[in-house]
Fold this sequence. Notes:
By secondary structure, the protein is mainly alpha-helical.
Amino acid sequence: MATVSCFSDVHSAAPARDAADLRPVVAGLERIVPAGKRKTNRVPRGLGKSFGPAALICLWWFGTRYGLISGDIFPGPGTLWTTFLDMIASGDLAEALLLSLQRVVIGFSIGFVVGVGLAIVSGLLRLGEDLIDAPMQMARTLPWAGLVPLLIIWLGIDETPKVTLVAFAVTFPLYVNTFAGIRNVDKTLVEAARTLSFARTALIFEVVLPGALPNLLVGLRYSLGSAWLALVFAETVNAQGGLGYLITHAREVYRVDIILLCLVIYALLGLCADLIVRLLERVLLRWRQSFDGT
């Protein structure tokens, strides 16, 4: 019994001595703060992103103000602002902008449904890939800008060929990226879902499609840019309204300021579309940890 008590005293005293010996070491430790959590005095991201466009506008104004750029060939910001106010007052710009937005929305909606729908069928089913992928890969290499005369012959000169051209330009970026996203889903996740007895519907909507979402959003960004490019071509051929019509009419009367103003509006609309996609990425991809720069 005495032997047992001696061992118990030794074991009970050892932790006390170890804790006492570690106190100076613990007291000297410094808490490590991750680099991403440290406070910095950086400029806010929103303000920082405005520096580039502001610098371009300043160079533009400086060049036209001091005669480095001819105002007849490339009007300055002040001239464009005056033209903008005049066209707003007359109502021409608002009418053209609404008509162009209507064409883009309808064409993009059709292209989104077709592109994503075909990509899902082709990506999930081998038979779907055999039937769909090869024709889509051939069709996407066609120069959609060169289809304008053919669409006019087939569909006339009303809104149908313009919407069709926008839908055609939107379909292929969405198809290619969504198909690649589905096929690049980690196979380990799919096998784990099957091991957990996921139904086919649950496997698609809870594993495959969420895994393909980043690629789909990339395709969405490219397709929005393609939609505006297609609209420019569509509206400059036999159009009776829209921003492209304003550009065509301004070319005939040599109004460079109107042409440049419409191009700036196209660029701003494309930037707004890109910002919307970025917002969707932040909301829908909150689960993904990705590198965002240093």
